[in-house]
Design goal:
Length: 278
């Protein structure tokens, strides 16, 4: 196969249990664009990362994971893009496989999660991010990277969204989160305390890479000082072991904003560890 693939994710689709796909979309980015280039930047630089994780004593080569490449999207047509990502995710679910999406900006989580939620109506979502993403609308639109978690709340209701690392947003967004969601500001130290609430429930994981401090992840469109270290995020990921994870994504790498490409490698390592937890 000539196209790029994520490290170790080279199994045939029919024999896979997890399906990786790219969502190269940044149509509502409000600061620095470029996340549309993330999926292939991650694939290209993933050759620098080992498939074996000494943290988990697992190897991606031993897992049934297929990378099917990027979804072909209708750039400039936001509603059509959302439909295309929804349909792609739904097909993976209909084939009894677990979808794992690489963004792209954070809005791409909405159509993927919507498809997952339709199959698993009691699905909960764990959200790592620097930002609340709970605006009712942004720049005159309801569907934006800044409102994606509000749109998901509209779908699933109260007490099903668990937010960690949040350190930026409107006052009203924080007030909404404190009333309707679970939110831990600035860190992810309490994640183990909520896991009992998720036992046997389907769970979706979304990781916005700007949850990490810009000193670790400069390659993102909306960097926010005061973020998690890699070790803190990694420990939080490892704590998810044993949950019924039915879908996941890693979003908001903007590779052009880190000429060193270190951010690409950090993103790849986050993806590797999350895939192994699933």
């Amino acid at each position: 196969m000539n196209r790029l693939q994520l490290l170790g994710c080279d199994k045939l689709y029919d024999e896979s249990e997890i399906v990786v796909f790219g969502a190269p979309y940044d149509g509502t980015t409000s600061f620095k664009p470029g996340t549309r280039f993330a999926p292939n930047a991650i694939r290209l630089d993933s050759d620098a990362i080992e498939t074996y994780s000494p943290y988990q004593n697992k190897d991606l080569e031993d897992m049934k994971i297929s990378d099917i490449g990027d979804i072909e999207l209708s750039y400039g047509e936001k509603n059509q893009v959302l439909d295309e990502l929804y349909n792609a995710t739904k097909k993976i679910l209909n084939d009894d496989k677990t979808p794992f999406m690489i963004g792209g900006e954070h809005l791409v989580t909405y159509p993927a999660f919507k498809a997952v939620y339709e199959k698993y109506p009691n699905c909960q979502i764990i959200h790592f991010d620097a930002h609340t993403d709970l605006r009712q609308e942004f720049s005159g639109g309801k569907f934006s990277h800044a409102s994606v978690m509000k749109r998901i709340h509209d779908l699933i209701g109260d007490n099903k969204i668990y937010q960690f690392g949040i350190r930026s947003g409107l006052k009203e967004e924080f007030q909404f989160a404190e009333k309707h969601n679970y939110i831990e500001k600035f860190s992810a130290n309490t994640i183990k305390d909520i896991l009992h609430l998720l036992n046997n429930k389907p769970v979706y994981i979304t990781i916005d890479l700007d949850v990490l401090d810009p000193s670790i992840m400069p390659g993102t469109g909306t960097p926010e000082a005061g973020g998690l270290t890699f070790k803190e995020l990694h420990n939080a990921i490892l704590s998810l072991k044993g949950l019924n994870i039915v879908g996941a994504d890693v979003v908001e790498l903007s590779p052009e904003h880190d000429p060193s490409k270190s951010s690409n490698l950090v993103a790849t390592k986050v993806i590797r560890e999350l895939l192994m937890i699933i």
